Amino acid sequence: MNRKNDLQIDVGILTTLELWPNRNIEYSEKFLDEYQNSIKKHLKKVCENVWIKNVQVEVNMTPKMHGYWKSCDAHTMQHQSCNLGIPSMQLELPMHVRQKFNVSEAFRSKFLQALVNIYNESVAKFWIKSKIRDNIFINEE
């Protein structure tokens, strides 16, 4: 892939989409819809007027690097989080996008605020309703 001409922010949530329905988690279908829609809405809004070297930054919700390798013993951090019942996503950012974060406080702030909004609109709302949080082992030593 030529990342000089491809400035897509890859959003990998396939692990969440594949594993959550199998866990019989209460509210999972509604959560998955809200989660995907929230990600699309907020990240696309951040990128809608961002151009780097005459190429628009875009959001790809179905990337090849999605964080779910079911036929392999390796588990990404996203996969491990899902196994614990914690919603997650994997973001792949092209180098030019990361460089823009370094020089544009406005872009960086909008992107970070988008992540907070996604969390508040979907994950936090789901977590409050969920019984999963009671079943996660936390070592407090």
Briefly, what is this?
The protein is built from five helices and five strands. The chain is mainly alpha-helical and 141 residues long.
Description:
The chain has 141 residues and is mostly helical. The chain has one domain (8-132). Helix content is 48%, strand content 11%. The protein contains five helices and five strands. It has helices at residues 14-19, 28-47, 77-83, 95-103, 105-129, and strands at 8-12, 51-52, 55-56, 58-60, 90-92. The strands form two sheets. A three-stranded mixed sheet has the order 4-1-5, covered by helices on one side. The protein has a two-stranded antiparallel sheet with strand order 2-3. Strand 2 (51-52) and strand 3 form a beta hairpin. The N and C termini lie far apart (45 Å). The model is unreliable at 137-141 (pLDDT under 50).
